[in-house]
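Researcher: I'm preparing a figure for a lab meeting and need a structural model of a single chain. I don't have an experimental structure, so a prediction will have to do for now. The sequence is pasted below. Please return the structure as tokens so I can convert it later.
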Amino acid sequence: MDSKIIEKFLNKSGKEKILIVVLIGVLMLVVAIPVKSDTNVSDSSGGLYGLNDASQEALSDYDVYMEQRIEKLLAEVEGVGKVNVMVTMGQTDDKTVEGVVIVAEGGGNGSVASNITSALEALLGIPAHKIKVLKMS
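Model: Understood. Here is the structure written out token by token.
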């Protein structure tokens, strides 16, 4: 079957061959052009930040992962004690950290709070005004 198609192509005149090659090239270009999906528009289900379900799940999994890693790290720091962490992520798929709230037993101690803030600035690359350290009750 393939050999018949090739034979028919070879029996065409020069202009027909060029036209076929050009049409195949245009078809390949159309297929290769990426289709832009609009993920910034909120869906009817009122999804988080207008992201699709897969993006929402990935974003949620990532922020939970970040919270757990930060909690584990801070729990090992002298004076911090028990700690709870909440991380808020950006509205896009790039998973940038927008802010962090730390509730720690040692959060009332200025030195401990300063150490936590400095550690998160270095770790996450976010400014101090996006980090809040609170004392656990």
